[in-house]
UniProtKB/TrEMBL annotation:
<dbReference type="InterPro" id="IPR022742">
    <property type="entry name" value="Hydrolase_4"/>
</dbReference>
<dbReference type="InterPro" id="IPR051044">
    <property type="entry name" value="MAG_DAG_Lipase"/>
</dbReference>
<dbReference type="InterPro" id="IPR029058">
    <property type="entry name" value="AB_hydrolase_fold"/>
</dbReference>
<feature type="domain" description="Serine aminopeptidase S33">
    <location>
        <begin position="40"/>
        <end position="294"/>
    </location>
</feature>
<keyword id="KW-0378">Hydrolase</keyword>
<protein>
    <submittedName>
        <fullName>Alpha/beta hydrolase</fullName>
    </submittedName>
</protein>
<dbReference type="Pfam" id="PF12146">
    <property type="entry name" value="Hydrolase_4"/>
</dbReference>
<dbReference type="GO" id="GO:0016787">
    <property type="term" value="F:hydrolase activity"/>
</dbReference>
């Protein structure tokens, strides 16, 4: 385990952490790891979920980098090292989910122009929602896309309709940038945060280690505006007529026991795409499929590798 911790808790040799400015000037913390293979296998952009930082996925980056991929990632605005959009400490707030899409589209254009193809994108959770949204809007054009436990609906103690109504009401009743609740990944649950994310205690501990090493990386609960936007925008995406015309080859990894996002909504939504494959996991997997115990994680990585080899060959 010590050897794996050394990989998961250290920035790889040759990687660069820098700042990328969005068109509106908002600074984003970015990660770049050029391929050490000539010619490179291609370039892979990884986008995490709400509250994520790219350090959580260094182990997966190492897997893809060993195959010759050039790797890139960045922290979304309002979280991680990209700074907060709210004065509330550690609150995950954003003015509009459209900001996420605009940031990704602008980053993509610059990144594609300076990295070797083929270009592929992987989005986890909220990152999966943003990737699918910009694909439908034709704002990016990867050779292939992978969505890991995509946030295409929220899992909560009430129905999506009631949740959207309540979040919208709370947004109007006070500062929309205030934290929606105090702790955990969702309210009204007796499950621990680790149980919601992964069965692997060591990989869960990696995130805590990075937060302790650099406290600015910790993102706490979302704002009421974020919650209301999440309900509204995922509903709009599920109802999007353009789903039937999105031609980018896509692989979806779904955790049927997911306690944070709605797997049934993901299966139904991705099922409307003309060129999508699904790989589903049962009770053995929580939300963070790529940070799960080895049997789940190994199966997920193998599925991604097969898909990219077939749909985005070198």
């Amino acid at each position: 385990m010590a050897g794996l911790e050394a990989i998961r808790r250290a920035i790889p040799v040759g990687a660069r952490i820098a700042t990328w400015d969005a068109p509106d000037g908002w600074g984003h913390r970015r990660f770049d790891l050029p391929s050490q293979v000539m010619p490179a296998r291609g370039s892979l952009l990884f986008l995490g979920g709400r509250g994520d930082v790219f350090e959580k996925y260094l182990e997966s980056f190492g897997h893809w980098h060993a195959q010759g991929w050039t790797i890139a990632s960045f922290d979304w605005r309002g979280q991680g090292g990209s700074g907060r959009c709210s004065p509330a400490p550690h609150c995950g707030h954003v003015e509009s989910f459209a900001d996420y899409g605009a940031d990704l589209a602008a980053f993509w254009d610059q990144w594609v122009a300076t990295t070797p193809g083929p270009h592929v994108v992987i989005g986890h959770s909220m990152g999966g929602y943003v990737v699918l949204r910009v694909l439908i809007d034709s704002a990016i054009a990867p050779q292939a896309a992978v969505l890991v436990a995509p946030m295409l609906g929220l899992k909560g103690p009430v129905t999506a309709r009631l949740g959207e109504w309540a979040a919208s009401a709370m947004r109007r009743l006070g500062d929309p940038a205030r934290a929606a609740w105090k702790g955990n990944e969702r309210p009204a649950t007796t499950e621990t945060r680790q149980t919601l994310l992964t069965h692997d205690a060591d990989r869960y501990a990696d995130e805590i280690w990075w937060q302790q090493a650099d406290p600015r990386l910790m993102t706490g609960p979302p704002s009421w505006n974020w919650v209301a936007e999440a309900f509204t925008q995922t509903r709009a995406l599920r109802q999007e007529p353009m789903l039937a015309t999105m031609r980018t080859p896509l692989l979806g990894l779904i955790a049927d026991a997911d306690g944070l996002v709605d797997p049934r909504a993901a299966v139904a939504t991705l099922g409307r795409l003309p060129d999508a494959q699904l790989v589903r996991f049962g009770a053995e997997s929580a939300h963070e499929i790529l940070r799960e115990a080895d049997p789940v994680r190994d199966r997920a990585l193998a599925a991604i590798d097969r898909f990219l080899d077939a749909r985005a060959p070198a």
